[in-house]
Specification:
About 40% of the residues lie in helices and about 20% in strands. It has about 500 residues and is an alpha/beta fold.
């Protein structure tokens, strides 16, 4: 009886059986090593296509040669051996995007590495995408406030701009961008920090700092650590840019930081040399300029017909001994809309942020400033330029005329005004107050060493006694005659409370 049931069951299954044919494009690995695989048999593969090596290991086709494909392996390349089967996926490499990635730490493939569980999103963006066309863009005219006085006043950054931050190691490049991210709290800007080849300990410290200051609520960190393979370091900035583009397409403002593109160029050189691409200057491949230009050109401010979103890029480049005329620095300087140059000498003198205002420039200029800042900052640039010139000559002789002494006296105070500690972003209205006081001579009677405590106390005083004046500047974004009178009255009334301090210092001098 049991045998009869088995026969009937088999007969039933044979009747219901339907044959179907699935077509898969399959190739074979004939050479593998150092994260690179050479594959034969995938004649229809596309450039940038995802390839499936099995065992949850994927790769990307980069070289399409006449009789084989050169691919980089994403992940553990030791799981791939000669003779392994490779399947074509038909998909260009893409990363998950959406609201779910905000507040997370991801690797360049969009896989979470923060131990907070998986990301459930059905939306994906290709990591390589053609930059928005000229017809879809509009001019950069809305400020992206960094909270750093020297930048917002003299080297303003606008939404949709690409501003390079360049300097030697340990001059405060990352500190500047982290301050900028912290300052976006309440500004409705989504931030993406891409760490390329950074020590894992540094990335952990940055995430902890952003979390402590409430900045992870609107920030995503894409981390390809120093121990990650060159293939992931190469993909990291493109992945971060794709994640930002999703929000830009939703009409939102996005800030993407690439920290740093020097290590990105080195990783790409490694990948290119392993793929046997011809080396050029400094052994970089011939398309190293195109690598960074196609990434940074994706930063844009879209016009209203295309959603009105923006993507601002802050690439970082590390120089060797302050040489900004080296190959990669000059490449990126020519792509971006200006650069902020951080100098070791200034850093060691205690001028922090160590911005060289002579070599730093924003090609967007004052169109990325509110009118109130434009009015006070115009004078500041001129005063600082004159001070730099005079200070260079003044060190050779002590016999100076009164006008020169006055100019140096004012410049020393302006230098103190522009000094700022880390994680201390200043709201734009307070910046206007401080700079107005400085350029209009209200600090001339304050001893140089007392300028910073004087300004800190002035900011506290203004927050309680000058709320109406500051809120008027914030609302109008301009500084009219009435506003100026209110600022002068506010500074004068504050000085009455510290008059003894100023006079006692003068008497002591």
């Amino acid at each position: 009886m049991h045998k009869q049931q088995i026969i009937e069951s088999l007969t039933q299954q044979l009747k219901q059986y339907q044959s179907s044919v699935t077509v898969e494009k399959v190739g074979t690995v004939f050479e593998v090593g150092d994260g690179i695989a050479k594959i034969s048999g995938l004649a229809d593969a596309m450039a940038g296509e995802m390839l499936d090596f099995g065992n949850n290991v994927f790769g990307v086709a980069l070289n399409l040669e006449e009789d084989f494909i050169g691919a980089i392996i994403l992940g553990d390349y030791q799981a791939v051996a000669e003779g392994s089967t490779v399947k074509s996926t038909g998909r260009i490499l893409e990363v998950p995007v959406g609201e779910q990635i905000i507040g997370r730490v991801l690797n360049p493939l969009g896989i979470p590495v923060d131990g907070k569980g998986t990301i459930s999103t059905e939306k994906f963006y290709p990591i390589e995408k053609i930059a928005p066309r000229v017809i879809t863009r509009q001019g950069v005219n809305t400020p992206l406030q960094t909270g750093v006085k020297a930048i917002d006043a003299m080297i303003p950054i606008g939404r949709g701009q690409r501003e390079l931050i360049i300097g030697d190691r340990q001059t405060g490049k990352t500190a500047l961008v982290i301050d900028t991210i912290i300052n976006q709290k309440g500004a409705d800007v989504i931030c993406i920090y891409v760490a390329i080849g950074q020590k894992e300990s540094k990335t952990v410290r940055i995430v902890a700092e952003l979390t402590a200051r409430g900045a992870m609520e609107y920030t995503t960190v894409v981390a390809a650590g120093a121990s990650a393979p060159a293939s992931l370091l190469y993909l990291a900035p493109f992945a971060g840019c794709a994640m930002g583009e999703y929000f830009m397409d939703q009409g939102k403002d996005v800030l993407v930081v690439y920290d740093d593109l020097s290590k990105h160029a080195v990783a790409y050189r490694e990948v290119a040399l392993l793929l046997r691409r011809p080396p050029g200057r400094e052994a970089y491949p011939g398309d190293i300029f195109y690598l960074h230009s196609r990434l940074l050109e994706r930063a844009a401010r879209l016009n209203k017909n295309y959603g009105g979103g923006s993507l601002t890029a802050l690439p970082i480049i590390e120089t060797q001994a302050g040489d900004i005329s080296a190959y990669i620095p000059t490449n990126v300087i020519s792509i971006t809309d200006g650069q902020i140059f951080l100098e070791s000498d200034l850093f060691y003198q205690g001028i922090r942020p160590a911005i060289n205002t002579g070599l730093s420039v924003s090609r967007v200029g004052s169109s990325a400033q509110i009118k109130a800042m434009k009015k006070v900052a115009g004078r500041l640039k001129l005063e600082m330029a004159q001070y730099r010139e005079l200070a260079a000559f003044a060190q050779f002789g002590s016999d100076l005329d009164e006008a020169t002494r006055k100019q140096i006296h004012r410049g020393a105070r302006l230098t103190e005004v522009l000094k700022q500690g880390q994680y201390e972003p200043v709201p734009v209205t307070i910046q206007v107050l401080m700079l107005y006081a400085a350029v209009n001579g209200h600090l001339d009677d304050v001893p140089t060493e007392k300028v910073q405590p004087f300004l800190a106390d002035l900011a506290e005083y203004a927050a309680t006694q000058g709320q109406r004046t500051l809120s008027n500047i914030a609302a109008r974004k301009d500084l009219d005659a009435d506003g100026e009178r209110e600022l002068i009255a506010l500074i004068a009334s504050y000085k009455q409370t510290v008059d003894y301090l100023v006079k006692s210092e003068q008497l002591a001098a």
